[in-house]
Specification:
- The chain is of the alpha+beta class.
- It folds into four domains: about 60 residues, DNA Methylphosphotriester Repair Domain, CATH 3.40.10.10; about 100 residues, Arc Repressor Mutant, subunit A (Orthogonal Bundle), CATH 1.10.10; about 60 residues, DNA-3-methyladenine glycosylase AlkA, N-terminal domain (TATA-Binding Protein), CATH 3.30.310.20; about 150 residues, Hypothetical protein, domain 2 (Endonuclease III, domain 1).
- About 45% of the residues lie in helices and about 10% in strands.
- The chain contains 23 helices and nine strands.
- The chain has a five-stranded antiparallel sheet. Strands 3-1-2-4 form a four-stranded mixed sheet.
- It is globular and about 65 Å long.
């Protein structure tokens, strides 16, 4: 988008552009979301930044009215550099909270200098600035939305000390944490931590729950007509405010940031569904279902390995049958962990010996670090590595890439449901047609599956 287009979107306060850019006002030195209710500044007084880190780095401070810290994040695949997107995933997982930029670059197979160059080109700021901005904005959210002590907020946000936490907040907001807390709502819950995680509308909440409900793993997940629950976390939708509300029991405050990231990934909150639908809606096989389901998302997962095991259990059985097997697995061995399943006799849950050996082999590969779900390798490389393992074919690998890796362009072309929905019998022909759906073939798959209903 150019500056004039950004200005028009800001004047319209269009929520579909929330998080895609930030408006910085030169006279006040404040940057805002496109939906900020404040008076529209003159065009000559504003400039635009693609992310909050770039705006902070340029000397602007976040608006206390529209709260940029709660805006929907950009899709990690929105940039032009796959390497930068992988690095952003690792930063979000806390790679720079304790480690250095050199360590991050090494995990990505780069030099530190090259990684910095890529970030300056595609993000506008170095990796350390991105990490610091994420810490600051998440800390501001916890200050405003919870009654947690500042010491707990500091460590939950990724700061190494309370002193660094105080310095970072004063630098970004020109206020200390106590002053920021005065802005917190008086009815902030005390016993339950409640976070509002925003998305760009629309969001097909009914279709999302309809997909994950039958696939919820007994003993770990519960899904009903309005909510998802797991391990002390309950997520519901607040459609009026374009957000999901996560109610979290404060058993382990330090994991709050990773929990928020798990929720964003599971519920695909970063997607720009308006842009995706505009592209896929041009295709004849998808046109009707795209129009019928605005805001359809690709469900992610809570844990990559867990999702992969669930997918392998679902090979050549119905969704209901796979759910039953997953429930037996959890009942017998607990939540799926690679170091446990690698050494167990899995045939006791009622699966063939060959499939049990495949799951054990996959578990060993994850335990040994050959298969990683942390974004340190590309989706294409992960799919290739998985297909080298016994018992994992292109369908399973692409389905795992869709949901566990968040790959927007993975496509299990051999899926019988997709072939039926497309009215085809040839996997090759479906793959050829799907070329026109790039780079959002995963969303095309979701639309095709949804059309079967």
């Amino acid at each position: 988008m150019d500056a004039d287009a950004c200005y028009r979107a800001g004047c319209a306060r269009d929520a579909r552009f929330d998080g895609l850019f930030f408006t910085a006002v030169r006279s006040t030195r404040i940057f805002c979301r496109p939906i900020c209710p404040a008076r529209i500044p003159l065009r000559r007084n504003v400039e635009y930044f693609p992310n909050a880190a770039a705006a902070l780095s340029a000397g602007y401070r976040p608006c206390l009215r529209c709260r940029p810290e709660v805006s929907p994040e950009l899709p990690v695949w929105a940039g032009t550099s796959t390497t930068v997107n992988r690095a952003l995933r690792l930063i979000e997982d806390g790679a720079l909270d304790q480690g250095s930029t050199e360590d991050l670059a090494e995990r990505l197979g780069l030099t530190d200098r090259h990684l910095r160059r890529l970030f300056l080109e595609h993000v506008g700021v170095p990796p350390v600035v991105v990490a610091q901005t994420r810490r600051v904005l998440f800390a501001k959210r916890l200050i405003t939305e919870t009654n947690l002590p500042f010491s707990q907020i500091a460590f939950a946000s990724g700061f190494s000390s309370l002193r660094r936490f105080n310095e970072a907040l004063r630098s970004a907001y020109r206020r200390n944490p106590k002053e920021l807390r005065r802005l917190a709502p008086p009815d902030a819950p005390a016993e339950t931590i409640e976070l509002k995680l925003h998305y760009r509308p629309p969001y097909d909440w009914t279709a999302f729950l309809g997909f994950i409900g039958p696939r919820a793993i007994p003993g770990l997940e519960q899904v009903d007509a309005s909510s998802y629950r797991r391990a002390g976390v309950e997520i519901t939708q607040c459609a009026a405010k374009n957000c999901l509300v996560a109610r979290i029991t404060p058993n382990n405050v330090k994991s709050l940031r990773s929990t928020a990231e798990q929720i964003r990934s599971l519920f695909d909150l970063r997607a720009n569904t308006f842009e995706i639908a505009a592209h896929l809606g041009k295709s004849s096989p998808l046109k009707t279902v795209v129009k019928r389901h605005p805001g359809l998302r690709v469900p992610g997962c809570w844990d990559g390995f867990e999702l992969a095991v669930r997918a392998m259990l679902g090979q050549q059985v119905t969704v209901k049958g796979a759910t039953t097997l997953a429930g037996r697995l959890v009942e017998r061995f607990g939540p799926p962990k690679p170091e446990i399943l690698a050494n167990e006799n899995l045939t006791v849950i009622g699966i063939p010996k060959a499939r049990a050996e495949s799951i054990r082999g996959f578990a060993r590969a994850v335990a040994d670090g050959c298969i990683r779900f942390d974004g340190s390798v590309t989706s294409e490389e992960m799919i290739g590595r998985m297909c080298e393992l016994r018992g994992i074919g292109p369908w399973t690998a692409n389905y795992i890439a869709m949901r566990a890796l968040g790959d927007p362009d993975a496509f299990p072309a051999s899926d019988l449901g997709l072939l039926k929905a497309a009215g085809l019998s040839s996997e090759k022909r479906l793959a050829e047609i799907a070329e026109a759906w790039r780079p959002w073939r995963s969303y095309a798959a979701m639309y095709l599956w949804e059309s079967l209903h």
